[in-house]
């Protein structure tokens, strides 16, 4: 009896692991056709000035400089900014309070590397990947976008974009081999959650509807927004 129960538990666990593996593999593979190089983007209508570049936030150091992960995203965004000099760039990240402002650090980095500040718009309420993409569609009024983040994260972001009705392609940013395994491991659970959001009707908390952006005006007007304390 005990042996039968043990075998049943092992069987269910094995099926669960296979399901987790299958979902993660599907998320990764399904994003491949949407992952592009700058040269591939340039050869299509994604090169249009009307399609913005969205850089997803990540950690910052002392509220002054980007982490290695975020710097990789910004360096890849810099390549796109140079290739497409008239595209708007949207920095979407966590601006919890005056002591933690990812988007300001992101903009400062790009400006220091030669990008005109008025091209760079700040979404101060991109607290998660889902929030950033939901707000892009429903608050910022965009229907098409080029997403910039590391490859391990990009497949999940593209899946969420599809689920939200956004037309999107992505550029896989630079990533350090030293942190890749840790971040890939974290993504296993994140992909499962966002698969449930996209395909199974799992409800996420309502993202903030504050801070709309008028892209006909300078991005500098989005710099100084007070959030938190």
TrEMBL record:
Origin: domain of life: Bacteria
Recorded GO CC terms: plasma membrane
InterPro entries for this protein: Cell_Envelope_Assoc, DUF218, Rossmann-like_a/b/a_fold
Domain DUF218: 53-171
Name of protein: DUF218 domain-containing protein
Organism of provenance: Abiotrophia defectiva ATCC 49176
